[in-house]
């Protein structure tokens, strides 16, 4: 139960923090007001029921109210928008179903994410003159937001409307914003093109899972942007010079679109790039060697394209090490210097503590999440797990040539998928150096030779497949992780033998060595004496058959004689004519 006894006879209480406990039941408050209470935090408990309608009367001077991650139901009291001192309101991750919030006059941080709120969004929320951080993700809001008559958007820093039912064209009212740091409109039904060219302060952009189309404009290249998610749209055309100057870019996710052309060489200029996801597009040409300049690269996915040519051996020079830059960890919500943070957003001079709060608010928003295929499954990675993840997926393309032995230098990599290409040659023995790898797939290629027995030294391997190649010899010894791989990992290689396959290596037919010519006898591959006798007999039979036919059939005999006569006449005239020409030539 909520410890209401803390409030009883304690009217001077100013701040009450009860988050991350196990309080249950309804929020029961005292009947008399607490005018000194400024901060109330009961988030991350198991409380339920309705938010008391008289909460505004009991706490008339609240500055911060956090009730997130509980089970509150019903409506959001409209009076919360009228508390003249309220600046931060976080009611996210509850089961609230109705919003009656009047136009908030002082709230600059409003988070209502992951509730059951729905209907058309109130324009009064958007038109707040003080609002800078707005989180409405994970609800059922619908309608168009492109035509809202906004009056205070110039100071906005974060706009998160993801995972709702919004539709229509992308909003145009924030195109010229000079302060927006993050835009997340993913998982909606927005359509149209991306026409952002002046969002110079943008750090985070997520427009994935919409119906956007057209090209990425060349003018869109924010220098400070770190994370871009445009996956699962209908974007098309080549990557001309969009993101050309975005040297701070850490994540570029363009999966599941219709981009064409080659991967641009300027990709090597993105020195901070750690995650590059280009899966399921129509890119062609060779993999640019400029990728080898990306020293921070840890996840590369260009699968399901039309790329061709050899694999760049220089990729083996990259470390693919773990990196926390691609996964900003949630450090929590630091409640210090609220007033100073508010004034920081509004414009007046700063002090050091204000930047601390603003940074933590920002980190709270940007816990990065990506999707990557490994172990034959599509996984989502975020937070600390993402920081440890590294992998390369080049599958389902038209790559040719041998697998570079330098790939064995990727000692930190956890997933390598080269399947469904036209690779030839043998499996490099250097793969035994992949000490951290968990998934290795080279199936559906034209690889030959034996499977390096050194691969059994890899103790971290969970998924392994060399199926459907031209490999031969014995399967690796069934020890350590290789004792867990079944027949499907090796199928489609008719010359492989040994467990878990049905082919027994002891029954394999070994071809005999050829015998030198001077030692050939009865065991020679062809008996030459028998060959000569057979040839003579066959020749005699053919001649005698022709003679018998001519003797028995008068018609064919006459035709044969006429043919012989014509041949003689032809030869005679040819010899006479040639002799005359030769005589005339000598004269």
TrEMBL record:
PROSITE patterns documented for this protein: LRR
Keywords, sorted A to Z: Cell membrane, Glycoprotein, Leucine-rich repeat, Membrane, Receptor, Repeat, Signal, Transmembrane, Transmembrane helix
Organism in which the protein naturally occurs: Populus tomentosa
GO cellular component: plasma membrane
Keyword check for Cytoplasm: no
Family: Belongs to the RLP family.
InterPro entries: Leu-rich_rpt, Leu-rich_rpt_typical-subtyp, RLP_Defense_Trigger
Protein name in UniProt: Uncharacterized protein
Main location: membrane
Transmembrane segments: 530-552
Its membrane topology: Single-pass type I membrane protein
């Amino acid at each position: 139960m909520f410890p209401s006894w803390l409030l009883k006879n304690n009217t001077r209480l100013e701040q009450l923090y009860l988050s991350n406990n196990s309080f249950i039941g309804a929020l029961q408050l005292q009947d008399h007001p607490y005018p000194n209470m400024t901060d109330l935090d009961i988030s991350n408990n198991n409380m339920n029921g309705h938010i008391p309608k008289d909460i505004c009367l009991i706490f008339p001077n609240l500055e911060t109210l956090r009730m997130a991650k509980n089970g509150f139901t019903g409506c959001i009291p409209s009076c919360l928008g009228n508390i003249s001192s309220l600046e931060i309101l976080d009611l996210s991750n509850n089961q609230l179903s109705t919003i009656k919030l009047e136009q908030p006059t002082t709230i600059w941080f409003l988070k209502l994410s992951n509730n059951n709120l729905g209907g058309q969004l109130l324009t009064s929320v958007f038109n707040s003159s003080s609002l800078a951080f707005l989180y409405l993700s994970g609800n059922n809001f619908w309608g168009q937001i492109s035509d809202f008559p906004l009056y205070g958007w110039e100071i906005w820093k974060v706009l998160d409307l993801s995972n709702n039912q919004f539709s229509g064209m992308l909003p145009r009212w924030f195109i010229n914003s000079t302060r927006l740091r993050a835009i997340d409109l993913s998982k909606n039904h927005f359509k149209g093109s991306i026409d952002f060219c002046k969002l110079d302060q943008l750090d985070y952009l997520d427009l994935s899972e919409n119906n956007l189309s057209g090209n990425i404009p060349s003018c869109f290249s924010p220098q400070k942007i770190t994370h871009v998610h445009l996956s699962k749209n209908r974007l098309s055309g080549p990557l001309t010079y969009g993101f050309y100057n975005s040297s701070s870019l850490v994540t570029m996710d363009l999966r599941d679109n219709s981009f064409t052309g080659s991967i641009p060489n300027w990709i090597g200029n993105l020195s901070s790039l750690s995650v590059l996801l280009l899966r399921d597009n129509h890119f062609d040409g060779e993999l640019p060697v400029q990728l080898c300049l990306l020293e921070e690269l840890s996840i590369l996915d260009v699968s399901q394209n039309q790329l061709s040519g050899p694999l760049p051996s220089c990729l083996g020079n990259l470390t693919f090490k773990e990196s926390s830059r691609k996964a900003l960890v949630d450090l929590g919500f630091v409640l210090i210097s609220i007033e100073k943070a508010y004034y920081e957003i509004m414009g007046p001079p700063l002090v050091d503590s204000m930047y601390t709060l603003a940074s933590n608010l920002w980190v709270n928003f940007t816990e990065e999440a990506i999707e990557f295929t490994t172990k034959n499954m599509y996984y989502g990675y975020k937070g600390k797990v993402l920081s440890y993840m590294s992998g390369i997926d080049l599958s389902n393309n038209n790559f040719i040539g041998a697998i570079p032995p330098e790939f064995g230098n990727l000692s930190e990599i956890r997933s390598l998928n080269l399947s469904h290409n036209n690779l030839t040659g043998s499996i490099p023995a250097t793969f035994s150096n992949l000490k951290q790898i968990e998934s290795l797939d080279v199936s559906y290629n034209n690889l030959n030779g034996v499977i390096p027995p050194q691969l059994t030294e890899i103790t971290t391997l969970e998924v392994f497949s060399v199926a459907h190649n031209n490999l031969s010899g014995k399967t690796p010894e069934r020890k350590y992780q290789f004792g867990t791989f079944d027949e499907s990992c090796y199928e489609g290689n008719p010359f492989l033998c040994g467990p878990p396959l049905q082919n027994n290596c002891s029954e394999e037919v070994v071809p005999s060595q050829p015998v030198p010519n001077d030692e050939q006898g009865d065991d020679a591959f062809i008996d030459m004496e028998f060959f000569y006798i057979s040839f003579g007999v066959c020749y005699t039979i053919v001649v005698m058959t022709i003679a018998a036919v001519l003797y028995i059939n008068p018609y064919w005999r006459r035709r044969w004689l006429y043919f012989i006569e014509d041949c003689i006449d032809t030869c005679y005239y040819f010899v006479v004519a040639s002799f005359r020409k030769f005589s005339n030539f000598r004269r």
